[in-house]
Design brief:
By secondary structure, the chain is mainly beta. The protein is built from two helices and 13 strands.
């Protein structure tokens, strides 16, 4: 597996080793041993699988508060997405900065997102299937969102009118949010 650093400390692109021949291919999508060898010690407890029927669906920016925060390993297994991670840790040298990575069924890339970051993705194709591993179970009371077009974050989505859920359309701006992440404490 190839591990690529991003500008956000703790956020990594993971490129699995692919074994292919005339029959097709094989890859390890998760290996605790390989991740440990790379210096990552996550104990994932929940897998999530989402489907988006149309190009232009935007999901996020999502996170969970406090002790319910989740680290995630995400990947796209059908179609393609623009995956976005935002540093929400107050006091961090990269606070409010974001990275964008294309994840697709064709590039096999995964993104490792530690606790303290917001996560979102925009579908670049129709019929997208997206998988998430999470190191903490979903907690509805701690579930939060930041508005996808928050001007403080200035994320370059490349779209002005994405398809969003009602929840995401009324999400607060970061300055209105009760986000409680603090750099060095999470």
């Amino acid at each position: 597996m190839n591990v690529i650093e991003t500008k956000l400390q703790g956020v990594f692109i993971i490129e699995p080793k692919i074994f292919g021949d005339s029959r097709g291919w094989f890859l390890e999508s998760w290996s605790a041993a390989r991740m440990s060898e790379a210096g990552f010690d996550y104990k994932f407890v929940q897998d999530n699988h989402s489907f988006s029927a149309c190009k232009g669906v935007l999901r996020g920016i999502h996170f969970q508060l406090g002790n319910a925060a989740q680290a995630k390993l995400v990947r796209c297994v059908a179609g393609a997405v623009m995956d976005v991670v935002v540093d929400l840790r107050k006091g961090s040298p990269t606070y409010k900065e974001w990275v964008s990575i294309e994840l697709s069924a064709d590039n096999y890339r995964q993104l490792l997102i530690p606790r303290g970051f917001g996560h979102a993705f925009l579908t670049l194709t129709d019929n997208v299937e997206f998988l998430y591993k999470a190191d903490n179970s979903y907690n509805a009371k701690a579930d939060r969102s930041i508005r996808w077009n928050d001007p403080q974050l200035a994320i370059e989505w490349g779209i002005t009118a994405p398809i969003v859920s009602e929840k995401d359309s009324i999400a607060p701006l970061l300055c209105e949010s009760d986000c409680d992440f603090v750099w060095g404490e999470i």
